[in-house]
Write a structure and sequence with these properties.
Length: 285
């Protein structure tokens, strides 16, 4: 049996509305437990502002473990459209080396799959969209792994096309899941819904395990701030939802991925329609 691997799966930190108590706790946990890798599955920031990215960069570079970061919909510039279209990941520059980074460990690898696009032909740009290029790149990375190596695919949006075609949570999610089911994929790690889950998604080529992490922000939905502690022994992946309130993992997990993945609005949080630009908000450089 292979040596056990310890992985931390964090998501939706939302610097700008982060929970500093929770972040201090997670930082201590990483320093003490020394996980083999940390996967952050998107929404590092609240409004993709430069000060929020500066706080994210400082925190990420303080972590004593290899880190990979997936961008989330909140991390793309929303109010300054030239940046969103021409350089959507430009504000990650200070820690670009960890963005969509593949981390290979003996027998297992964290492989990125970007679920964001700068614009969509629907009003709600918060939802996911997998391009052919992004999916091909992910599959090529999986296919290039050493023989017998397992993959944990890191995304922001859960790969679920709930509801009608017009309200699909992640466009081309079913296509991606079916392709992943045909490869040596251990599971798909995601965020976005601010509650943890661990479900099996059926595809024409078999089931794919989908594991979602909760939030480390003030934007909680139905559970307190948390992260996933993953242990892999070479055969089985065990998921423990860690939280400061000592709530058991089953009670921290939702049963299914909600179609409406937006968490309740926090006190004092501004309301902005996703995908539209309020005229009163100046460009952020």
């Amino acid at each position: 049996m292979a040596d056990k691997k310890l992985l931390f799966h964090l998501s939706d930190i939302h610097f700008g509305l982060e929970d500093n108590h929770a972040l201090d706790w997670v930082e201590r946990e990483i320093a003490e437990r020394r996980p083999d890798a940390v996967a952050i599955t998107g929404d590092l920031t609240m409004r993709a502002r430069t000060d929020e990215f500066a706080a994210a960069e400082k925190w990420i570079h303080s972590l004593q473990a290899p880190v990979t970061v997936e961008p989330g919909n909140h991390d793309l510039p929303n109010y300054y459209l030239p940046s969103r279209y021409l350089n959507p990941l430009g504000r990650f520059e200070a820690f670009r080396e960890v963005v969509e980074k593949r981390i290979e460990l003996p027998g297992i690898a964290l492989v990125p799959l970007n679920t964001n696009v700068p614009a969509q032909p629907r009003l709600n740009w918060s939802k996911g969209w997998i391009t052919e290029r992004a999916l091909t790149d992910c599959l090529d990375q999986i296919d290039a792994l050493p023989e017998g190596g397992r993959a944990l695919v890191c995304v922001h949006h859960p790969l679920r096309e709930t509801g009608t075609k017009g309200t699909a949570l992640t466009r081309n999610g079913e296509k991606a899941l079916d392709a992943l089911a045909q490869r040596n994929v251990l599971g798909v790690l995601s965020g976005h819904v601010h509650d943890a889950f661990d479900i099996m998604e059926q595809t024409p080529h078999g089931p794919v395990r989908m594991v979602g992490a909760g939030t480390l922000s003030q934007r909680i939905r139905s559970t307190p701030p948390s992260f996933n502690e993953l242990t892999w022994d070479g055969e089985n992946l065990h998921v423990c939802v860690r939280n400061l309130e000592d709530i058991d993992t089953p009670a921290m997990m939702i049963d299914d991925v909600p179609e409406n993945a937006l968490p309740p609005r926090s006190e004092g949080e501004p309301v902005a329609p996703i995908g539209r630009v309020p005229r009163t908000d100046p460009p952020v450089h």
